[in-house]
Amino acid sequence: MNNRTAPPLAVVVGSGIGGLTAAVALHRRGWRVTVLERAGSLQPVGAGIGLAPNSLRALDVIGLGDEIRALAAWQGDGGMRAPSGRWLARTTARAAADRFGDPLVLVHRATLIDALASRLPTGTVRTGAPATLTAAGSPTTGRRAVVTTPDGDIEAELVIGADGINSAVRSALFPTHPEPEYAGLTTWRVVVPAPERPFHPHETWGRGALWGTQPLKDGRVYAYAAAAAPAGGQAPDDERAELLRRFGTWHDPVPAIIGAVAPDQVLRHDVRHLTTPLPAFHRGRTALLGDAAHPMAPTLGQGGNQAIEDGIVLAHHLPPQHDIGAGLAAYSAARIPRTTGIVRKSARIARLVSLTSTPAVTIRETLMTLARFGPGLALRTFDGIADWRPPQHTYSDRAQGREDRCVRR
């Protein structure tokens, strides 16, 4: 007779970066995991993502950090520019790595999604599987959480809502909480072949607008733009034409990148954020992570990074057969203060991007220019963010050694 107890089941609703990170981390801890994805495939909506040192160290925990580090494409210098091309502040890839112990790695979202999914057993991810949280469950009574799918109900010891900014799981758990609100910016994203002329990675700040150009390891370029605009707006013709109107006179290589993209390859989205934090990131046996828990403006590039951290920290507090109620409470306690601070800091920078008056833009550019005279000044924006470490030793001795060598300056 086999008296072994089956591993507990965790159901993840949503197969984005945070959901898959949590799935891999829980699987490595000994959970059975099912990932339910409404879309028909894992092809991610989006373009590129910048993985900062904090998320690279989080990925070390699931054995993925070095694979992603190998994709780093930024070499040499870069920095912040004015639309004319004038440098406002400069930094180097080496300076960021020296300060935080790791580089900034730009990858296509599809690359990261594929890497995460490959670390799950075959059949873990079910696409074309919309799911509704029917019951949040209760650790105190032993009642399981219930997710309803077209194929029937699934009872689980744990449900994770990783279903994005419009999270139905969040609405089910906290129906009276304010919804994410418009942050005042619209964004555009493209991925194109690299221009013929070499360029330095940069973010360019103009009047109520921003443009960024970053290289990918595969020879392509990830470019992103943001501008102050009314919510819900759309171009009267197409979004490439809109980019030309807004950014076509900016310095090289901006016009060339816009000219290289097809109109239907430009992604446009309004930025929404949740500046009033949830009272908890869990209720019953159900947890939230990523944009479902703390949507933020992309101005610090931390949305996906924080989702990765969430998944690692959640699994850390939920070893199999552990008190799920205590583990989820510890997860909320660890993540709410950190993510709330980053949401609010991202919102402040979004307001800086939105400045349009001449005096305000002049002051902003002056402050950026002064960063030239303070070594590491621009990088200090990420102190307390990029220097984060997971709440446990990584599985990689190499990575742990890298952490031990990281010295905050």
What does this protein look like?
This protein has 409 residues and is of the alpha/beta class. The chain contains twelve helices and 18 strands. The protein has a domain at 9-78 and 102-180 and 274-352 and 377-404: 3-Layer(bba) Sandwich (FAD/NAD(P)-binding domain), CATH 3.50.50.60. The chain has helices at 17-29, 53-60, 65-69, 93-100, 109-117, 168-173, 239-247, 254-260, 303-316, 324-353, 358-370, 397-405; strands spanning 9-13, 32-36, 48-51, 77-81, 87-92, 105-108, 125-126, 132-135, 145-149, 152-156, 158-161, 181-193, 202-206, 209-215, 220-228, 267-273, 282-283, 286-288. A seven-stranded mixed sheet has the order 5-4-13-14-15-12-16. Strands 7-2-1-11-18-17 form a six-stranded mixed sheet. Strands 8-9-10 form a three-stranded antiparallel sheet. The longest helix is centred in the C-terminal third of the chain and has 30 residues, at 324-353. The chain is globular. The chain starts with 8 loop residues before the first strand and ends with a helix.
